[in-house]
Amino acid sequence: MKLTLYQVDAFADKLFGGNPAAVIPLKKWIPDEQMQQLALENNLSETVFFVPAKKKGVDFDIRWFTPVQEINLCGHATLASAFVIFEKLKLKKKKIVFDSKSGLLTVTKKKNVLMMDFPSWPPERVTEFPDELLASLGNPEIAGVYKNREYLVELMNEEAVKNCRPDFSMMKKLDRMVIITAPGKEVDFVSRFFGPAAGVDEDPVTGSAHAQLIPFWSEKLGKNNMRAKQLSQRGGELYCEQKENRVIIGGKCVFYMKGMIEL
User: Fold this and answer.
1) What is the pLDDT at residue 117?
2) Is residue 210 a contact partner of residue 75, using CB atoms and an 8 Å limit?
3) Which domains does the chain have, with CATH numbers?
4) pLDDT for the residue 33
5) Cα(81)–Cα(75) distance, rounded to whole angstroms?
6) Distance (Å, rounded) from C-alpha 106 to C-alpha 22?
7) What is the pLDDT of residue 81?
8) Which residues of the chain have pLDDT under 50?
């Protein structure tokens, strides 16, 4: 069996920026174990697979795998998938509808920017959390701790986010992944994302984290339209909008390579 693999830098406007994703279009699903093995072999934060959908009103069914597990939502790999479908598979539409473990996700093409419609996951403030959470971040001064799919830790300023040096061995003991965030100097907010238990110590740009960050900062800043930056080594910028119980996450993609997998 031969499969085509595309590698795309998502949330980037130039090569070697943003978050690289491996995109593997399928005609039909292959075994879960095989998809997990391919994700491990690719060794990127996410490998994404999609197949033509059978449900009316849906274009593709989509699934995402880190090197060690399947996850229920991934932004940058969804963005990269839409880019491949529009630019490489030449779908003659302006909007793609994906069905996923997090429901229907749409991606609309607006010139060279792709806009994703994702669920909004407002995090709730918590006062009780594992001691390892703050210890793994170096016990920084915090404005608050919140929780949804991940822990969201609000730090005092952009410099604190940028200078954080996590202890990933300690963080791996936590029951969920970690987002750190603060107000930005040139954008509305900044963040970083850590998932050592999922096989990704630091994710370069994390679209799904913004399903929590957008409602969090929208309420805090009193605005619906925002710009965000993820302060990883590669870095990436995102266009953000809070829209009732949905969030709009926008970004650009850059094509890196196309390859062939033989199984």
Assistant:
1) 97
2) yes
3) 2-119+249-262 (3.10.310.10), 124-243 (3.10.310.10)
4) 98
5) 10
6) 20
7) 98
8) none
Beta strands in the chain (DSSP E): 2-10, 19-25, 47-52, 60-65, 70-71, 95-100, 103-110, 113-119, 124-125, 142-147, 151-155, 178-183, 189-195, 200-203, 225-230, 236-243, 246-251, 253-262
d(CA 213, CA 50): 26
Q: How many angstroms separate the Cα of 143 from the Cα of each of 22, 129, 181, 188, 239?
A: 36, 15, 10, 16, 24
Residue 138, number of CB atoms within 10 A of its CB: 12
261 phi, psi to nearest 5 deg:
-105, 130
Q: What is the pLDDT of residue 54?
A: 94
46 a catalytic residue: yes
Residue 108 burial (10 A CB sphere; 0-12, 13-18, 19+): middle
Beta strands, E only, 103-235: 103-110, 113-119, 124-125, 142-147, 151-155, 178-183, 189-195, 200-203, 225-230
**pLDDT of 262:** 97
Three-class SS state of 259: strand
Q: Quick one: which of 161, 181, 171 has its CA closest to 136?
A: 171
Gap between the Cα atoms of 237 and 50, Å rounded:
25
pLDDT, one tens digit per residue, over 40-94 is 999 999 999 999 999 999 999 999 999 999 999 999 999 999 999 999 999 989 9
Q: What is the Cα–Cα distance from 16 to 9, expressed in whole angstroms?
A: 7
pLDDT of residue 111: 87
Catalytic residue among 33, 46, 150, 158: 46
Residue type, 208: S
User: How many residues in total does the chain contain?
Assistant: 263
